[in-house]
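Researcher: Predict the fold of Endolytic murein transglycosylase.
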Amino acid sequence: MKVRNKNVRVYIFIISIITMSVLLLAILLKIQKPKTKEVYVEIPQNTSVKNVAMILKEKGIIKNPYLFMLYVKINNYKIAAGSYKLSSSMSYKELCEVLQKGVVFKKTIRFTIPEGFTCVQIAKRLSSLGIVDEKKFLDEINNCDFDFRFKYSSKNVKYKLEGFLYPDTYEIYVGESEKDIIIRMLNRFLEIYNSIKHKKTTQLDDIQTVILASIVEKEAKKDFERPIIAGVFLNRLNQGIKLESCATVEYILPFHKEVLSYEDIKIKSPYNTYLYKGLPPSAVCNPGKESLLAALDPQKTDYLFFVAKKDGSHIFSRTYEEHLKTQKQLKEGKK
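Model: Structure tokens for Endolytic murein transglycosylase follow.
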């Protein structure tokens, strides 16, 4: 009986050891839960395994730093310094494989620039997001010599790259310079413009096309009207009639106005198309694809005038008399 009891104790001891080993292995290899969490983790140079484990614990990537340290030591992993994107759903093995190989992820930030924003509005938007210094961004636009084939000939332009900072959603690395961001936007413009420029049906050159597109961008509210409005302005250009676009005057005002005053349209500036014939010296905003397409291929009509309705659409007229009649009807609520 004593021998049998001794054997039973041995069996129980062995089973206990096996059970504990299996449980320990499960703990070491188990995936962190319950909620998946992705974070950026910075591992400085010469950080000890203990401190790495503590960093991962603080970031919510692991729960038990001592088990992680044990796993690293048992498997002889070497952790490299760097910036990593890690998830709480990763097992110890997956974490160590990433940290050992030095797969580094840079932090990024996304921002969106709406169609029709001016360079100043873009600078303010990016500054408010903490991405750029507003003044430095605008200085770069005018003072930095970009290798960019679109250049305005006039010296009277407010911002040399107005019209070419393409409105879109961008994802950039944190810490990119003002110049880097401008280059990204210029490259995006070239990508879009080069893909559609074959649609051009006018005699305008590329610069003139972009300027016209910027005016269309500010004047049109409905996409289907953009080619019609572009056609109206082209008709006026071809007939030597002043464009009389409120958008070009608003560009030189210090703040936005829903309705221009008579004093506004008397401002002496090459951007004032109420005073001077032809296109302004530069774009008056940064147009989107639809406005660029409209300027490349305007709709052919004999319209010379248009007036806005309350819903943002327009009524087009062929003669000044028709235009005045339409204005009167709108004012009286008959249209």
